[in-house]
Amino acid sequence: MKLMLRRLHTYFYMFSVLFLYLFFHPFFYYFSRKPSRYLVLNKLRAKWAKWSSAMSGILYQLEFEVDFDRKKTYVICPNHTSNLDVSWATLIPKSNFAFMGKEELLQNPTTKLFFKTIDITVKRDSNISAFKAFKRASDHLKNDITMVVFPEGKIAEIYPPQLQDFKIGPFRLAIEQQVPVVPVTSFNTWKMLWDDGLKYGSQPGICKIYVHKPIETVGLKLADADALRDQVYAVISQKLQDYED
Prior knowledge:
The chain is built from eight helices and seven strands, in the order ααββαβαβαβαβαβα. It is an alpha/beta fold. A seven-stranded mixed sheet has the order 1-7-6-2-5-3-4, with helices on both faces.
């Protein structure tokens, strides 16, 4: 019975996402037509993400380690356990931002508009695709567009989820463009909805997110990318260990 209720909740959450997407779509479409309009597009995207989650009783509680200027440009690196991670991540930047995600998101009716415009797709296990994606991400950073990149690369097929090894790409990207990295720890989002929710369902609740202080990259060289990756991994891993629900 409990699993059935959780699955019903997942379908209601999906309905909420789609319902509000259709409501926002004319605005999304208009503001996605020109890069000069992307900032407004992202502000609307954040409202859609927040409101569609709230309709199904899922709320986001963000705690910031320090009060940093969120209008500046960063590479934001959260751990990844849930499709909800994309929703709460839209609430962190106050500047323009873009996601990097798997190529399959071009087929999703609620994400393809963004991935055909401001967001960046990458084909897994394709070095050429990865090169092109990170070249475009570099251009975004040069144009003051914050990049949100999940360094694990995907949601692992492990339940309960465990922090997976980080890929080097986002850290090389941050060093090349000399922009700070912002580690983000999502503590319990997976308890509300793990992965896409289809296996174990979902439930209302408060997703607790900890935004760590930015790590500067000014003066770092590409040879320091491994150390930067390990530092960010250690920060998130330690915070997960310290967390008490």
